[in-house]
Design goal:
single chain, alpha/beta, 5-stranded parallel sheet, 3-stranded antiparallel sheet, 39% helix
């Protein structure tokens, strides 16, 4: 009987250590073994990915390729520039493949992609082997032990997880890797549709990454930022298994930090170094195994002589949150990433709601502008020009470095949604999708729903003041001075409220506080875009009304737009008239995506620790419904591209 000829398909597991899927592939004892990556146009064009995350991905790809070559000089990561749905049927035949092996991915788009490829493999007589390794527990198995329902709280994960089984110990990296077989590409490359391109505004030149299947030199090399048309990354954070393992070693070496870590007690204003591990991007790309992380930490905790922290605030507790969000997404599918048709997401009449194609139940990648004022606030928030230095510093750090502290994410998300602007969490999630190094759909969407109090968490009265909250952590304002340099010389008395500084103090600091920030001027910082105390009160009233109405995204009144009749016309948000159409016609206008837009302190007492991380909220008595397909959050417009072709 001929020996197996195996393709190992790297995806969310760019590492050699503790890879159950890679071990399964090598256990086949192949006569030929190809480690490959498919350059999927879905992520290149239909997912929002900024330059910093592209660079991090390429770092991870180059690092794992070098690690493979160290083990076998004839091998490497073979990166092929074609959509996997069209590439694999050709590879199966050309390379006489017997087995395809990969790590399980429960993202909604990934499920569709993998289903299509497994069907193609079946037709070609290729055996497919799939192993879970992205989360502590297989997300589908976790859901089964949660009675088939989305995991909406940490307690549900803690109850269901052990029923799946103990978290396996990590396995070592392979010591040998078989030679690859021939790498002939005697077939035509399928060119992808490049429009619409959600990353077009970030590119300085046209994307050239699909000019040839094996790259410009024919060596299956990882693409470069230049090929993608992107400018150089601005983040100092770099990817790769080598870096990830060294970073983990450094953390574990500090036993007290590892054993007593409590997320709410880490400073969101620390930046050199940061107060948390910054390993989340490595977990996303799989350059660090989640089981390796879990067990290295747990072993320290188990042997710590002092008082150790516990989930959910501990380091291992943070991993439980991740499994919770992945479990929710595994059930709800595409609908998890939006409000409309989402059975577990509360309806709040936010400004700037997403447009939805009710025939397909897909959001379209565009949004309604019901309020030009809200649109202006959104653009100022996104660009770090709100006039609130704490918020602006965080948003500028995010754009520059691709990362902000967890409590910083709390602050900017609360400010955009229920604690200031009353703008849809979906707008914020899209910005984070583009800018975060560690963006993964499940966690990004889950966190935005949590922080907007539309799912997972319901204590909407806990609100982050953009003045009082940062003062607790950084009285000198060093964090603001680092990321909002125009305020660098301002007296600490005014660092979080520069509009209160007398003109003489402003002149002394070399800054003028004026205007709305639409036009950037040297030495000018904008005035705050609203009175925070006033807006917080309005938002709280709006949240109280919405909770009283008590609708979720799959309710008939939400779907047909008649929900507006349940709100007073004067309520905040899209509430006027007898239908959604009425509300939109009350002075609003529409837009094709946000790119087409030209674009005493009032702080009230708050829970200074932020929303308690005890999670979460359950929608009582309902049955989880698999969401209708929605190709967004990790790519919005694929469905519409396909329909346009048919016309």
């Amino acid at each position: 009987m001929p020996k197996p000829r195996v393709i190992y398909w790297f995806r969310t597991d760019l590492r050699l250590h503790d890879s159950p899927a890679l071990k399964a592939a090598l256990d086949l004892d192949p006569e030929a073994f190809w480690p490959i990556w498919t350059w999927d146009p879905h992520y290149v064009y239909r997912a929002r990915v900024g330059p910093n995350r592209w660079q991090f991905l390429m770092d991870c790809q180059n690092d794992v390729s070098k690690s493979i070559t160290k083990i076998n000089k004839k091998s490497k990561l073979f990166l092929m520039r074609e959509t996997p749905q069209t590439l694999f049927p050709k590879l199966f035949k050309a390379w006489k493949i017997t087995h395809l092996v990969f790590e399980k991915d429960t993202d909604a788009y990934a499920r569709d992609r993998d289903t299509a490829i497994m069907e193609a493999a079946k037709e070609a007589g290729v055996e497919v082997i799939v192993r879970s390794g992205r989360t502590l527990w297989d997300s589908d198995e976790l859901v089964k032990k949660n009675h088939g329902k989305p995991t909406m709280s940490i307690s549900q994960v803690q109850a269901a997880g052990p029923k799946v089984g103990p978290i396996p110990r990590p396995i070592p990296a392979p010591k040998s890797i078989p030679d690859p077989g021939e790498t002939n590409l005697d077939f035509q490359q399928h060119q992808p549709e490049q429009t619409p391109d959600l990353n077009g505004t970030s590119r300085k030149k046209n994307d050239r990454s699909y000019e040839s299947m094996a790259g410009p030199k024919g060596d299956f090399a990882v693409p470069t930022m230049e090929e993608l048309g992107f400018p150089a990354a601005t983040t100092q954070h770099r990817g790769g298994e080598t870096i990830a393992l060294k970073a983990l070693d450094k953390i574990i070496a500090n036993e007290k930090y590892t054993a007593t870590f409590e997320k709410p007690n880490t400073a969101p204003t620390a930046f050199s170094p940061q107060s948390t591990t910054l390993l989340s991007p490595h977990l996303h790309f799989g350059s660090l195994s989640i089981r390796e992380f879990y067990w290295r930490v747990q072993d320290v905790v188990d042997n710590f002589s002092g008082k150790a922290s516990h989930p959910p605030v501990s380091l291992t507790g943070q991993l439980l949150f991740r499994d919770m969000y992945f479990g929710a997404q595994a059930v709800l599918g595409y609908s998890f990433g939006q409000t409309m048709y989402n059975s577990h997401c509360r309806l709040i009449p936010w400004h700037l709601p997403s447009k939805v194609d009710h025939t397909t139940k897909l959001v379209t990648g565009e949004y309604h502008i019901d309020s030009p004022q809200a649109e202006e606030w959104f653009q100022r928030w996104k660009n770090g020009m709100t006039g609130f230095p704490w918020i602006d510093a965080l948003m500028r750090q995010l754009r520059q470095e691709g990362w902000i502290h967890h409590l910083g994410r709390h602050a900017v998300a609360c400010f955009l949604t229920r604690g200031g602007c009353y703008i849809s969490w979906e707008r914020g999630a899209e910005v984070f999708e583009e800018l975060l190094l560690d963006h993964e759909t499940a966690c990004n969407v889950g966190n935005w729903q949590w922080l907007s109090c539309t799912a997972f968490f319901a204590q909407f009265f806990r609100c982050y003041s953009p003045i009082a909250f940062p003062q607790k952590w950084d009285k000198e304002g060093d964090f603001v001075r680092r990321y909002v340099p125009e305020l660098g010389k301002l007296d600490k008395k005014y660092i979080y409220e520069p509009w209160k500084a007398p003109i003489a103090d402003q002149k002394k600091a070399g800054v003028s506080v004026k205007g709305d920030g639409k036009v950037k001027e040297e030495g000018v910082y904008p005035k705050p875009m609203f009175d925070f105390a006033e807006r917080r009160t309005i938002c709280l009233d709006g949240m109280k009304n919405a909770y009283k109405v008590g609708l979720y995204g799959d309710n008939e009144k939400v779907v047909d737009g008649s929900w507006t009749t349940l709100f007073a016309d004067g309520a905040e948000g899209l509430t006027k008239g007898k239908s959604f159409t009425d509300a939109m016609s009350a002075g609003g206008r529409k837009i094709r995506d946000d790119r087409d837009v030209s674009a005493d302190d009032g702080a009230v007492a708050e829970d200074e620790s932020g929303a308690a991380e005890k999670g979460g909220e359950n929608k009582g008595g309902d049955k989880a419904k698999p969401g209708a397909k929605r190709k967004t959050t990790q790519g919005t417009l694929d469905g519409h591209v396909k329909r346009a072709k048919k016309k």
